[in-house]
Amino acid sequence: MMERRRIVAMWRQAQAGVLVTLVRVEGSSYRRPGARLLIGEGVYAGSISGGCLEGEVIRKARWKVQDGARMQTYSTMFDDTAEMPFGLGCGGVVDLLFEPVATPEGTALLEAMERSLHGAAGTVLTWLPAAGRALRRAVLDAHGHVVFASGTLGEQELSAARALLPGCQQLPGGHDTSEVYCEVLVPPQRLVVLGAGDDAKPLVTMAAQLGWSVVVADGRVQLLRQERFPEAESLVATESAAKLDLSPLDAVVLMTHSYEQDRSYLAELMLAAPRYLGVLGARHRSSLLVSEVAATTGLSLAECCARIYAPVGLDLGGDGPEAIALAVLAEAQACVQGKLGASRRLSAEDVLEQAAKGDSSVYLRAQCSATGALS
């Protein structure tokens, strides 16, 4: 997603000449279909390999599109590694689409990429160029309405393209369907950080570096300053998670360090059920929160435990805010990508065991004035 942000930014600065898209992969490849490289005069953004193809592609890009968009295949299928071109050594074949940016089709694609960064999902269908056939493109919004279509595309072709959408939308990213390259442009992952303490800073920074859209919320207005969180897209002063318009696709991390505020937020978050909900704190503290929230929401302990990640973060080791932020973001990334394996999550049995060790009075203390907590 960060690649898309950089490409759009470079295009908006009028520095772009040629856009290169990785369309197909056979065998091994460092990048997957959908990877892009935008090339300007002495500058570029993005990548389509591990760094070994870029030099060759950048040198020849303008020459390749002199007569319009074209496809180019690069192969690394050699037995003798000394003969491998471009230093690839991946043992695969990649097909690249070269296209000039200054065309209606190029502009339509980049505009769709830009809209996706602002939350508008879309689907791009590209009829790939071949001998005697120029590149054509259609851009559809999230409802399947045509936003752009090349002038040479007929109604019959557009209707056939719509039939590809269900299969295409099940596989976000780019993939090839016969002569049509289909790509779903999903918005950036949204991360809501509830708690604007100092330890939230590296988490916000790391998430922004992934290209995520980050929202920081807290009831302590004095902590919500732009200079503290320059990478955040928005800062929200609220004591209610219900005011954040949460989506089931969101990732949320609860880290206010206030037991009362965490408990209030968590009750609302349990009902909103974002796909990742991490709760910072010791196993005993989180267990007490879960048991109290279960009682107020009507959810069972098992249901509550299934909706949260606590203790939050993968067990990566290390200490300090940066190490914790890395562990938390790694778990959130794995979760939203469907790649999460083992975790340290609470179970209903854990909650009962921890709650038996003592009540929440130890956490119900006034915070020191340095945190600026609400009275």
Count of discrete domains: 2
Helix content: 25-40%
- Series of secondary-structure elements, N-terminal to C-terminal: HEEEHEEHEEEHHEEEHEEEHEHHHH
Share of residues in strands:
15-25%
State the end-to-end CA separation. 40 Å
Which sheet architecture does the biggest sheet show? Answer: 5 strands, antiparallel
The number of strands is 15
How would the global form be characterised? Answer: elongated
What do the pLDDT scores average to?
A: 87
Keywords:
disordered C terminus, 2 domains, Rossmann fold, single chain, 11 helices
Structural account:
Residues 79-84 and 366-375 have low confidence and may be disordered. With 375 residues, the protein is α/β, with parallel strands linked by helices. It folds into two domains: 2-185, no CATH class; 190-365, 3-Layer(aba) Sandwich (Rossmann fold). The protein contains eleven helices and 15 strands. It has helices at residues 2-12, 54-64, 104-117, 155-162, 165-169, 200-209, 259-272, 283-297, 301-307, 321-336, 348-355, and strands spanning 18-27, 36-39, 44-46, 70-75, 92-100, 122-127, 136-141, 146-149, 173-177, 180-185, 190-194, 213-218, 234-237, 251-254, 276-279.
